[in-house]
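Q: Hi! First time doing this. I have a protein sequence and I read that you can turn it into a structure. Is that right? Here it is:
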Amino acid sequence: MVDGPFESTEEDVTRVRLPNIKEGEMFGIADQLLGASKIKVMCEDGQSRVGRIPGKIKKRMWIREGDLLIVAVWDFEPSKCDVRFRYTKTQAVNLSKRNKIPKNLDIF
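A: Yes, that's right. Below is the predicted 3D structure, encoded as structure tokens:
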């Protein structure tokens, strides 16, 4: 058996976006849809926040309960946050296998 350039022994590693801690981003799980582009998010620091879904994300991808998100906490009101990114189910499982998700949020 000859190893050709098209055969891969390792699994394909895809690049996914991780939270930028310097910008105040963190992982979160979508808890409950509240309507009017708002969502309740359980963040990795243990707090539950009300998240705002910007139009850029709302138009491109739907967010459902149980989705893994990247959220950015507001400086002036720490009980609220903005949703920056949503992971697909496959990406979330992949991150879970690589131990990138904190243990208190790892439901995948």
